[in-house]
Amino acid sequence: MALVEQLEASFRQAWLLLYSQGIGEGYISALQQFIQAGIDAYHLGYSLVALNLELLAHQGSEADPLGLPGEETQIRTIWLTLVYMTLCYLEGIDLPTSTLPEAEGLQELVVGVVEAYRAGYSLERLKLELVLETGGSQRPVGEAAILNQWMRLVFLTLELSQAQET
After folding, report:
1. Which of 104, 110, 92, 120 is closest to 157 using CA atoms?
2. Is the pTM above the cut of 0.90?
3. Phi then psi for 11, rounded to 5 degrees?
4. What is the spatial distance between Cα 164 and Cα 162, in angstroms, rounded to a whole number?
C-alpha cells in the first residue's frame, strides 16, 4: 500500500473508531498506524506541505472517490502537523511553519509535551498537571477533548520514534 493510501486509510479508521467506540485499543492501534506512516513519510523526506498536497490529490481520485469532508481534512492536517513538529523538535531543527490558525499553539503544545515526556511524565500525569496549573478551572468539554487528543498524538509519536531508535 502506498504511503499516502496508508495515511488516508489509518486516519479514516482512527477517526471512525474514535467516534463510534471512543478511545480504546482499536482507536489507539489505528492512531499508531497513522503516526507510523507520518514518521515514515518524514524519514523519506516528504515535506509537510508536499504530503498534504499528495493527500488532497488522492481525495476524489479513483482510489478515493468519496474524499473527506473539510473538517476531517483539517483534522488530518493538524494530526500530521503534530507528528512532524514532534519529530523536528526531537531532531533540534526548526518546527515546520504552518498556515493553520492553531499553528502557534501547536508549537507550544509540542514543546511542552516533549519536555514533559523527557521528564518522565505519563500522558495521564500531564493531563492532571494541566488541570492543576489552571487552578482546577474547567475547560469546555470539546476543548479539553481536543487538547487530550493532540497530547496523545505527540506522546504516541514520541513512543514510536523512540522504539525505532532502539
Report:
1. 110
2. no
3. -65, -50
4. 5
